[in-house]
Amino acid sequence: MSNQMANEHTLDSKPRGSQITVVSAKGGAGTTSLLANIAWGLSQQQGMNVACTDLDFITGDLDLQFSVQANNALVEMLQFPDCLEPVIYQRSGLKVNDDLYVFTGYQSGFEQHFWPDVVSMQKVSRFCLQQATHLLWDVPAFCLRDKVGFDTLNSSDIRVVIVEPTLASIRSTNQLLAKLEQSSSTRTLVVLNHTKPEALSLITANDVASTLSRKFDVEIPYSPADMRGGNALGVLAINQKGRNAKALKKLVSLVSGEPEVSKSRLFSWLKGA
Description:
This protein is of the alpha/beta class.
């Protein structure tokens, strides 16, 4: 079989994983930090292999969340999606652990030299899902201005929509959720992320839920020491103690469909085994 035929066979193969898109309707809601924690949490579950990608080619910082050295490989993959082979997955991805690879396409300077089309996005997604059980796309708010962002959302198995308790974020999230309702086949999780101290905010969690006309699936408390300090040291918030870790583990459980197992329950199970 020729290389071209083998490659076509690979791209035509049925993906074995699920696609998850993490997005906020307004920038600054903590999308990348939450995606990194979800990706790590999924990679710790038995039998899970995770790929996570960052569509912000200019100011993205997914590499910093995991303390790995970024590259421009994702752009190359999107430019030449018909040339993808399994070996490219390991060579292009930034290895965080045996079950987690990060794909970036960061460009130098502040000019956007490349933006993918819908077909290229679909081919790269399909390719990654042939190598991993979960593919996570970090879709920045500006991607929602074109078809690429919305097609990625609508083609996902799960959409994680991040909202923060501000008027601008609530308004934009309302608009986004209304548009996403047109695609009822995809599961949407709404996460309230407190990026400022709750006590100093004039908008409560109940206010946000009432305005959005739906309950949150997960509420992430304000804890900069966990979310920022931990990430700067290469230690994600999900691996620390406190309310943040508990909320993030709940989010991972909802995404994966696997129930959480507390230490006490795990100890009881091991003791009785």
